[in-house]
Amino acid sequence: MTIHIVDIEHVLHTCPAEPEPHPYDTRRTVVHVIPGGPCRTPVTLRCGDVTTFIPCHRHEPAARQCGACRVIVSERTITNRHPDDGVAA
After folding, report:
1. pLDDT confidence of 50, banded at 50, 70, 90?
2. Do residues 8 and 75 touch, judged by C-beta distance below 8 A?
3. Where exactly are the structural domains of the chain?
4. Spatial CA neighbour of 15 closest among 6, 24, 7
5. What are the E-state strand segments in 1-89?
6. Could you name the domain of life of the organism this protein comes from (predicted)?
7. Is the pLDDT of residue 88 over 60?
């Protein structure tokens, strides 16, 4: 399994149409990637005399991919920030 660890930042604002703070911008930063290794069940493609092996993640849906090709995204931190926070008038 390839694991991607990300930090998420939501930038919030309030507007006359919706007075409750709500996100209008979401940023994701990849912090770390732990590789899963080489594909364990490559797919065989044949065209005439040529045989090619490709990793299963390039051909199969997620449910049929091997453990090494699957991707997991783990959220390390989620931050909500309002642009007016800490700004002196």
Report:
1. very high
2. yes
3. 2-81
4. 24
5. 2-15, 18-34, 43-47, 50-54, 71-81
6. Bacteria
7. no
